[in-house]
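User: Continuing from earlier, I have the next pair ready.

Assistant: Great, send them over.

User: Here they are, in order.

Assistant: Folding the first of the pair now:
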Amino acid sequence: MKKQIALRALLGFPLGVFIGYTITMVISSIFANGFYSPVVPALAEQAGSQINAVWLQYGLTGVLGAVIAAGSLIWEIEHWNIMKQTIVHFILVSVTILPVAYLAKWVAGTPLSLLSYFGVFAALYFVIWLCMYFVLRNKIKKANQKIQAEKQ
Protein backbone atom coordinates (compact mmCIF):
# COMPACT_ATOMS: atom_id res chain seq x y z
CA MET A 1 0.00 0.00 0.00
CA LYS A 2 2.83 2.44 0.83
CA LYS A 3 4.35 1.79 -2.58
CA GLN A 4 1.01 2.57 -4.26
CA ILE A 5 0.65 5.80 -2.27
CA ALA A 6 4.15 6.91 -3.28
CA LEU A 7 3.62 5.99 -6.94
CA ARG A 8 0.30 7.82 -7.18
CA ALA A 9 1.74 10.84 -5.40
CA LEU A 10 4.69 10.93 -7.83
CA LEU A 11 2.32 10.74 -10.79
CA GLY A 12 -0.10 13.22 -9.22
CA PHE A 13 2.49 15.97 -8.67
CA PRO A 14 3.01 16.79 -12.39
CA LEU A 15 -0.68 16.28 -13.05
CA GLY A 16 -1.49 18.84 -10.35
CA VAL A 17 0.96 21.31 -11.89
CA PHE A 18 -0.52 20.70 -15.35
CA ILE A 19 -4.08 21.27 -14.14
CA GLY A 20 -3.05 24.31 -12.08
CA TYR A 21 -1.34 26.01 -14.99
CA THR A 22 -4.06 25.06 -17.45
CA ILE A 23 -6.46 26.89 -15.14
CA THR A 24 -4.19 29.97 -15.14
CA MET A 25 -4.16 29.96 -18.95
CA VAL A 26 -7.95 29.68 -19.15
CA ILE A 27 -8.46 32.42 -16.56
CA SER A 28 -5.90 34.64 -18.33
CA SER A 29 -7.61 34.03 -21.67
CA ILE A 30 -10.93 35.16 -20.24
CA PHE A 31 -9.96 37.98 -17.89
CA ALA A 32 -6.44 39.26 -18.65
CA ASN A 33 -7.02 41.11 -21.95
CA GLY A 34 -4.48 39.10 -23.93
CA PHE A 35 -1.86 38.90 -21.18
CA TYR A 36 -0.81 35.81 -19.27
CA SER A 37 -1.11 36.08 -15.53
CA PRO A 38 0.49 32.96 -13.99
CA VAL A 39 -0.23 33.98 -10.39
CA VAL A 40 -2.46 36.42 -8.59
CA PRO A 41 -0.76 39.77 -7.92
CA ALA A 42 -1.05 39.32 -4.14
CA LEU A 43 1.07 36.17 -4.32
CA ALA A 44 3.74 37.87 -6.45
CA GLU A 45 3.84 40.73 -3.97
CA GLN A 46 4.10 38.41 -0.97
CA ALA A 47 6.74 36.21 -2.63
CA GLY A 48 8.85 39.22 -3.60
CA SER A 49 8.74 38.60 -7.35
CA GLN A 50 6.59 36.95 -9.95
CA ILE A 51 9.09 34.12 -10.53
CA ASN A 52 9.21 33.34 -6.81
CA ALA A 53 5.41 33.26 -6.80
CA VAL A 54 5.36 30.98 -9.85
CA TRP A 55 7.74 28.54 -8.13
CA LEU A 56 5.64 28.63 -4.97
CA GLN A 57 2.43 28.01 -6.89
CA TYR A 58 4.17 25.25 -8.87
CA GLY A 59 5.01 23.48 -5.61
CA LEU A 60 1.57 24.02 -4.13
CA THR A 61 -0.31 22.74 -7.18
CA GLY A 62 2.07 19.77 -7.33
CA VAL A 63 1.43 18.93 -3.68
CA LEU A 64 -2.30 19.28 -4.24
CA GLY A 65 -2.12 16.91 -7.21
CA ALA A 66 0.03 14.44 -5.27
CA VAL A 67 -2.34 14.34 -2.30
CA ILE A 68 -5.44 13.98 -4.46
CA ALA A 69 -3.83 11.24 -6.56
CA ALA A 70 -2.59 9.34 -3.50
CA GLY A 71 -5.94 9.90 -1.81
CA SER A 72 -7.71 8.14 -4.65
CA LEU A 73 -6.53 4.90 -3.04
CA ILE A 74 -9.18 5.50 -0.38
CA TRP A 75 -11.78 4.37 -2.90
CA GLU A 76 -9.99 1.03 -3.20
CA ILE A 77 -10.20 0.09 0.48
CA GLU A 78 -12.80 -2.64 0.09
CA HIS A 79 -13.51 -3.23 3.78
CA TRP A 80 -14.64 0.41 4.18
CA ASN A 81 -18.18 1.35 3.24
CA ILE A 82 -18.89 4.20 0.83
CA MET A 83 -19.77 6.57 3.68
CA LYS A 84 -16.45 6.09 5.44
CA GLN A 85 -14.53 6.37 2.15
CA THR A 86 -16.38 9.57 1.26
CA ILE A 87 -15.86 11.22 4.66
CA VAL A 88 -12.15 10.35 4.82
CA HIS A 89 -11.56 11.42 1.20
CA PHE A 90 -13.48 14.66 1.68
CA ILE A 91 -11.51 15.51 4.83
CA LEU A 92 -8.18 14.68 3.15
CA VAL A 93 -8.93 16.83 0.11
CA SER A 94 -10.38 19.64 2.25
CA VAL A 95 -7.39 19.88 4.58
CA THR A 96 -5.16 20.02 1.50
CA ILE A 97 -7.02 22.37 -0.83
CA LEU A 98 -7.92 25.03 1.74
CA PRO A 99 -4.35 25.72 2.89
CA VAL A 100 -3.10 25.56 -0.70
CA ALA A 101 -5.79 28.04 -1.81
CA TYR A 102 -4.91 30.33 1.09
CA LEU A 103 -1.13 30.13 0.54
CA ALA A 104 -1.49 30.64 -3.23
CA LYS A 105 -3.77 33.63 -2.57
CA TRP A 106 -6.59 32.06 -4.58
CA VAL A 107 -8.83 33.07 -1.69
CA ALA A 108 -8.63 36.02 0.67
CA GLY A 109 -7.62 35.22 4.22
CA THR A 110 -10.80 36.51 5.82
CA PRO A 111 -13.06 34.04 7.62
CA LEU A 112 -15.98 34.85 5.29
CA SER A 113 -13.85 34.33 2.17
CA LEU A 114 -12.49 31.03 3.48
CA LEU A 115 -15.99 29.88 4.43
CA SER A 116 -17.33 30.86 1.00
CA TYR A 117 -14.46 29.05 -0.73
CA PHE A 118 -15.09 25.96 1.39
CA GLY A 119 -18.82 26.14 0.61
CA VAL A 120 -18.19 26.24 -3.13
CA PHE A 121 -15.63 23.45 -2.81
CA ALA A 122 -18.03 21.28 -0.76
CA ALA A 123 -20.86 21.85 -3.24
CA LEU A 124 -18.65 20.94 -6.21
CA TYR A 125 -17.33 17.90 -4.33
CA PHE A 126 -20.90 16.76 -3.66
CA VAL A 127 -21.99 17.24 -7.28
CA ILE A 128 -18.97 15.35 -8.62
CA TRP A 129 -19.41 12.62 -5.99
CA LEU A 130 -23.08 12.25 -6.86
CA CYS A 131 -22.36 12.00 -10.59
CA MET A 132 -19.63 9.41 -10.00
CA TYR A 133 -21.91 7.46 -7.65
CA PHE A 134 -24.66 7.16 -10.27
CA VAL A 135 -22.21 6.31 -13.06
CA LEU A 136 -20.60 3.56 -10.98
CA ARG A 137 -23.95 2.30 -9.72
CA ASN A 138 -25.12 1.99 -13.32
CA LYS A 139 -21.94 0.09 -14.30
CA ILE A 140 -22.41 -2.30 -11.39
CA LYS A 141 -26.04 -2.84 -12.34
CA LYS A 142 -25.04 -3.66 -15.94
CA ALA A 143 -22.27 -6.00 -14.77
CA ASN A 144 -24.71 -7.81 -12.48
CA GLN A 145 -27.22 -8.13 -15.32
CA LYS A 146 -24.50 -9.58 -17.55
CA ILE A 147 -23.52 -12.08 -14.85
CA GLN A 148 -27.17 -13.09 -14.38
CA ALA A 149 -27.60 -13.52 -18.14
CA GLU A 150 -24.52 -15.74 -18.34
CA LYS A 151 -25.81 -17.93 -15.51
CA GLN A 152 -29.02 -18.64 -17.40
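And the other member of the pair:
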Amino acid sequence: MKKVKITVMKKVSHDDLISHYENRISDACNMELGASFISENCLIPEGFCESAWQNLYPYVMTLSCGGEDIHNGWMKDKNTAMISCNDGFRPVSFYLEAID
Protein backbone atom coordinates (compact mmCIF):
# COMPACT_ATOMS: atom_id res chain seq x y z
CA MET A 1 0.00 0.00 0.00
CA LYS A 2 1.09 3.54 -0.71
CA LYS A 3 1.31 6.18 1.97
CA VAL A 4 -1.02 9.16 1.57
CA LYS A 5 0.09 12.65 2.51
CA ILE A 6 -2.74 14.86 3.77
CA THR A 7 -2.15 18.62 3.79
CA VAL A 8 -4.46 21.28 5.24
CA MET A 9 -4.90 23.68 2.32
CA LYS A 10 -7.69 26.03 3.35
CA LYS A 11 -9.90 26.79 6.34
CA VAL A 12 -13.11 28.77 6.03
CA SER A 13 -15.35 30.14 8.77
CA HIS A 14 -18.97 30.98 7.97
CA ASP A 15 -19.44 33.43 10.82
CA ASP A 16 -22.98 34.36 9.75
CA LEU A 17 -24.07 30.73 10.01
CA ILE A 18 -22.18 30.24 13.26
CA SER A 19 -23.83 33.25 14.94
CA HIS A 20 -27.28 32.28 13.73
CA TYR A 21 -27.31 28.49 14.21
CA GLU A 22 -24.45 27.15 16.28
CA ASN A 23 -24.34 26.61 20.02
CA ARG A 24 -20.88 28.01 20.68
CA ILE A 25 -18.29 25.34 21.35
CA SER A 26 -14.67 25.77 22.27
CA ASP A 27 -11.85 24.35 20.14
CA ALA A 28 -14.15 23.44 17.26
CA CYS A 29 -11.28 22.73 14.86
CA ASN A 30 -7.63 22.22 15.66
CA MET A 31 -6.40 21.75 12.09
CA GLU A 32 -3.62 24.25 11.30
CA LEU A 33 -3.27 25.71 7.83
CA GLY A 34 -0.31 24.06 6.07
CA ALA A 35 -0.12 21.13 8.48
CA SER A 36 0.72 17.77 6.89
CA PHE A 37 -0.06 14.26 8.03
CA ILE A 38 0.91 10.85 6.65
CA SER A 39 -1.57 7.99 6.56
CA GLU A 40 0.13 4.59 6.50
CA ASN A 41 -1.87 1.41 5.83
CA CYS A 42 -5.03 3.56 5.62
CA LEU A 43 -4.87 4.42 9.31
CA ILE A 44 -5.84 7.80 10.72
CA PRO A 45 -2.70 9.84 11.37
CA GLU A 46 -1.95 10.78 14.97
CA GLY A 47 -3.50 14.12 15.88
CA PHE A 48 -5.83 14.17 12.88
CA CYS A 49 -9.48 15.24 13.23
CA GLU A 50 -11.70 12.16 13.58
CA SER A 51 -14.68 13.89 11.97
CA ALA A 52 -12.66 14.98 8.92
CA TRP A 53 -11.19 11.48 8.67
CA GLN A 54 -14.68 10.06 8.08
CA ASN A 55 -14.90 12.13 4.89
CA LEU A 56 -11.34 11.55 3.75
CA TYR A 57 -11.07 7.83 4.44
CA PRO A 58 -12.63 6.51 1.19
CA TYR A 59 -10.28 8.69 -0.86
CA VAL A 60 -7.25 7.79 1.26
CA MET A 61 -8.13 4.11 0.79
CA THR A 62 -8.46 4.48 -2.98
CA LEU A 63 -5.15 6.33 -3.35
CA SER A 64 -3.40 3.99 -0.92
CA CYS A 65 -4.47 0.97 -2.96
CA GLY A 66 -3.16 2.47 -6.20
CA GLY A 67 -6.40 3.97 -7.46
CA GLU A 68 -6.01 6.91 -9.78
CA ASP A 69 -8.09 9.61 -11.41
CA ILE A 70 -10.77 9.35 -8.74
CA HIS A 71 -13.22 11.66 -10.52
CA ASN A 72 -12.27 11.18 -14.18
CA GLY A 73 -10.02 14.14 -14.89
CA TRP A 74 -11.10 16.29 -11.96
CA MET A 75 -7.55 16.70 -10.64
CA LYS A 76 -4.51 17.72 -12.70
CA ASP A 77 -2.47 15.00 -10.97
CA LYS A 78 -4.33 11.69 -11.13
CA ASN A 79 -2.69 10.53 -7.87
CA THR A 80 -4.29 13.31 -5.80
CA ALA A 81 -7.65 14.53 -4.50
CA MET A 82 -8.98 17.70 -2.85
CA ILE A 83 -11.51 16.77 -0.18
CA SER A 84 -13.24 18.89 2.46
CA CYS A 85 -14.52 17.93 5.88
CA ASN A 86 -18.24 17.97 6.59
CA ASP A 87 -18.25 20.88 9.05
CA GLY A 88 -20.81 23.26 7.58
CA PHE A 89 -19.64 26.08 9.85
CA ARG A 90 -15.86 25.71 9.43
CA PRO A 91 -15.05 23.56 6.38
CA VAL A 92 -11.42 22.59 5.91
CA SER A 93 -10.01 21.56 2.51
CA PHE A 94 -7.40 18.81 2.45
CA TYR A 95 -5.05 17.91 -0.40
CA LEU A 96 -4.43 14.17 -0.59
CA GLU A 97 -1.48 12.76 -2.49
CA ALA A 98 -0.33 9.18 -2.89
CA ILE A 99 3.36 8.89 -2.09
CA ASP A 100 5.77 5.97 -2.13
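Worth noting for the second one:
Strands lie at 3-11, 36-39, 80-84, 92-99. The two ends are 9 Å apart (CA to CA).
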